[in-house]
Write a structure and sequence with these properties.
226 residues; 3 domains; alpha+beta; elongated; 48% helix; membrane; transmembrane helix; four-stranded antiparallel sheet; three-stranded antiparallel sheet; Immunoglobulin-like
């Protein structure tokens, strides 16, 4: 039996196989087309995200110290376009009040109108010794930064700044006469508190003695009248 005879005898089977192959090829084409579209959509979305990321301001703020004696507050725009209307909220976390010079800085009180890409601002905070409490711990802060880009899109960043990252390093730095002076001021302040408390106790005892003597004198006078 030659091929032509076999084909004529099995033409229905051959037709079915052709239809089946056509369906399979069509399904594969549809699958590849859908995945290609999905891949293209993902690629477009990723490219758009990268484009936005590369064309947005990125404002960061942090504490820094060069000589481990003084602390400075830095505000920087590490993005690729300018930022404007920058507002900063800095609140102590582990203390109710922290006395620093940063509260008087214009960038904290009034904000920053405009910050170009790569531009930074710096403000003096305080000396490390002045920031330490009696247990030699440093304060930490909550910071919130709100700003806009030149198209008025709004951005917000919030995180924690903890000066205790310098704990241990500060004590190992040689101190100069200013540091010694500040330590002496702390000691003097502590002695002053002890002295004030002692004086209060003395005055309290004097009042009690005076009250007791007054009662005794009153009793004596009453006894004489009788």
């Amino acid at each position: 039996m030659d091929f032509n005879q076999w084909y004529l005898q099995n033409s229905s089977l051959v037709g079915f196989i052709n239809i089946l192959l056509t369906v399979l090829l069509t399904a594969l084409n549809v699958w590849f087309a859908r995945n290609s579209q999905r891949y293209s959509a993902d690629t477009v979305r990723q490219n758009e995200e990268i484009r936005k990321e590369n064309n947005t301001p990125n404002i960061i703020a942090y504490f820094n110290s060069v000589n481990l004696r003084n602390v400075y507050f830095h505000l920087s725009n590490i993005g690729n376009i300018p930022a404007k209307d920058i507002k900063i909220k800095l609140k102590p976390k582990n203390r109710s009040v922290v006395s620093t010079h940063i509260d008087k800085a214009h960038m904290i009180k009034e904000g920053v109108a405009f910050l170009a890409p790569g531009q930074s601002l710096t403000a003096f905070v305080e000396g490390f010794i002045q920031l330490m409490d009696d247990d030699k711990n440093f304060p930490s802060f909550y910071i919130e930064i709100n700003y806009r880009d030149i198209d008025n899109n709004c951005y917000s960043r919030s995180y924690e700044l903890d000066l205790n990252m310098y704990a241990g390093y500060v004590n190992s730095v040689p101190r100069d006469i200013k540091d010694v002076y500040e330590e002496m001021k702390k000691i003097e302040k502590h002695i002053g508190k002890i002295s004030d408390n002692y004086k209060k106790e003395i005055r309290k005892k004097d009042k009690m003695i005076e009250k007791h003597n007054s009662i005794q004198r009153t009793r004596i006078r009453r006894g004489r009248r009788r």
